[in-house]
Amino acid sequence: MSTPLILEIETLISRDPARRGLISSATEFGPLCNGHLARAASDLDQHARRVLIVTGFFIPRGEPPAAETDGPPGAVLLAAALTAIGIDVWIVTDSRCDSAVRATANAFGWPVDRVQSFDRLDAATASDFLREHHRAGLSHLIAIERVGPSHTRESVTESSSPLWGEGLGVRGAASDTTAPHPNPLPNGERELANFDRLCPPEHRNHCHNMRGEIIDEFAADLHLLFDESARSLPNVRTIGIGDGGNEIGMGAIPWAELARRLSGEQAGWIPCRIAADWNIVAGTSNWGAQALAASVLLLRGRTEVVAPWDEQHEVRVLEHVVAHGPAVDGVTRRCEPTVDGIPFLTYIQPWLGMRRLLGLDAS
Prior knowledge:
Elements: H1 4-13, H2 26-29, H3 36-47, E1 50-55, E2 58-59, E3 66-68, H4 72-84, E4 88-94, H5 98-108, E5 115-118, H6 123-135, E6 138-144, H7 153-158, H8 189-198, H9 224-232, E7 237-242, H10 255-259, E8 278-281, H11 285-300, H12 311-324, E9 327-328, H13 344-347, H14 349-357
Parallel strand pairs: 1-4, 1-6, 3-9, 4-5, 6-7, 7-8
Antiparallel strand pairs: 2-3
Helix pairs in contact: 1-11, 1-14, 3-11, 4-5, 4-11, 5-12, 6-9, 11-14
């Protein structure tokens, strides 16, 4: 059940300083996935037993090539928050991002032996891995700033339902929102024709960065965890958190809805086809993870858990992961303690606002 405070938290992360377009377009087209934060938090609060968090976005042209600073800090903060209230949490990443995730875990004091990484996944390995965790109580699979493959003609048709704005999710997750999206798009031949025009065949079913470059070789196919979960473990709920449209979870939104909000010729081939039951859209993915952690703790009455994670702590985390991961800013590609090219004083504002809403800092 949503609370007024969670709605305020959702508002705090609904800003677009990096000008990705998914949030700034809300004035023209309406908000994306409105209410999903509250529903995802409520489901975690009520049903979470074991949670797998998938994160890590590798920047091959970084200086040096490394994981980006958006993703691991939010993933570890969420993992630490859920762990503190008795939920069994593991983080999954790939071998290229492993050191950055482990450095972040060290900065939080969260156990690094709960970080698991893969060089590459195939469907059989993904299925075996999920079933092993399912036998131990796996209830939720969460992706935070994790790239997934783009659409195909088949997935465009499947994702075109006008009901998506009600927060039903790919597998029928309940929602507390009842109004349909103000601009539902038709499916059928016109939409497929638009897809054929805007997404060339060579860009279909591939992972892309926000520049529209294919990065399959750096993605390790971790999206197969979500494909296999949807295929064989329908009782495992899925949550996606992203900021650009190319992340796992964005398949909950029709391709055309994302394509019209993004800019540049790559707008047609960036959107990810992998859906989640709930998809949280934020200005940075770290903000989305922070918001989910704050909302679950609010519902549990355990907001004191995040008290030590103040502004100075967040500075130290970013500095530590950049120095010891290493990690790079995903926009500037430089090894610096910033996220998506946003000055730190701007980046930290949503988290400070959440802390005030939780009663941890003075207004």
